[in-house]
Structure formats: C-alpha cells, structure tokens
C-alpha cells in the first residue's frame, strides 16, 4: 500500500530538484553576463530569456526572422576572452532555425549590415552538455556582423 505513493513522490522530488538546478544555473549565468557587461562597459539590452545583446551598428538592410537564411561573420569566445570559434571575414551562411537558440533569438535584432554582440547564457547555447571545444554550462559571447539576409 505504501509503495504506490513512492513513485509519484520520487518523480515529484526528481522534477523539483531538476527545476531548482536549472534556476541556479540561469542565475549563475545571468550574474556572469552582468559582470562581463559591467567590466567591459557595454550598453547591452536584456531580452527576458537570459539573452543580452548590444548593437554597435543597427544596419540598414533587411531584418531577418527566426527562419531566415543569413550570412554572418562572427567570433565566439568565453568571458575570459578565449576564442572557441571564428568565421572568415566573408562569414558563413545558415538558416537561423538550425543554430543555437541564442542566435535564433538574437540575430533578428540586427538588420543587414548590423554589428554587435550577443551574450548568451548556457541554456540558449550548448546547455549542460556543451559541444566540441565548449564545456557544458558555458556563457558564450559572440561578436557578429550580419552580412546578408535571404
């Protein structure tokens, strides 16, 4: 009789602990991003999802949406300045629907020709698992230039 209550209770505790862990990581990422913004005297805007962006040049061309094909020149690095990825000056072309959530959300703030920064919390980047060259729970910074929108 007591066993039938164990499984629902166990599932509740598991879900509760998982949610708390995600909230703690989100808070940690936000603190890291805010410190980076302060230390580097940035004028970044928060989106409410954990993403921050700074527009250095808005651009004057077409503004993409989350499913646009774009060409972006970028440099990706950690808050300590170490670079983990970088494109050529000619950029790379891809669909915004096929990249990390921070890019899908952040790049549409720019118009073609726009330049700036995306400051991406781990949940909008590579999450808890990370990827080659990016450890799990990493805050990512990207300098981007939006070269083209299709």
Structure report:
The chain is an alpha+beta fold and 150 residues long. It has a single domain, classed as Chitinase A, domain 3 (Roll). 29% of the residues lie in helices and 27% in strands. It has helices at 3-39, 101-106; strands at residues 45-46, 52-57, 69-77, 83-86, 92-95, 115-120, 140-149. Strands 1, 2, 3, 4, 5, 6 and 7 form a seven-stranded antiparallel sheet that branches. A hairpin with a 5-residue loop joins strand 1 (45-46) and strand 2. The longest helix has 37 residues, at 3-39. It is globular and about 40 Å long.
Order of helices and strands: HEEEEEHEE
Write down the domain tally: 1
- Give me the number of helical elements: 2
Number of strand segments: 7
The largest β sheet comes out as: 7 strands, antiparallel
What is the gyration radius calculated from CA atoms? 18 Å
CATH architecture assignment name: Roll
Structural class: alpha+beta
Please write the CATH class name.
Alpha Beta
The CATH topology assignment is Chitinase A, domain 3
Ends apart, CA distance between termini: 62 Å
Shape: globular
Helix content: 25-40%
């Amino acid at each position: 009789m007591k066993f039938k209550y164990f499984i629902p209770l166990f599932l509740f505790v598991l879900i509760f602990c998982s949610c708390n862990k995600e909230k703690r990581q989100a808070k940690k990422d936000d603190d890291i991003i805010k410190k980076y913004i302060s230390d580097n005297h940035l004028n970044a805007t928060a989106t409410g999802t954990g993403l921050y962006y700074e527009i250095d040049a808005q651009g004057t061309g077409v503004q993409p949406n989350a499913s646009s094909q774009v060409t972006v020149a970028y440099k990706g690095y950690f808050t300590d300045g170490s670079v983990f990825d970088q494109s050529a000056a000619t950029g790379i072309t891809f669909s915004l629907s096929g990249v990390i959530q921070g890019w899908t959300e952040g790049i549409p703030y720019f118009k073609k020709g726009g330049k700036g920064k995306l400051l991406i919390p781990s949940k909008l980047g590579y999450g808890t698992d990370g990827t080659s060259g990016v450890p799990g729970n990493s805050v990512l910074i990207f300098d981007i230039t939006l070269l083209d929108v299709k």
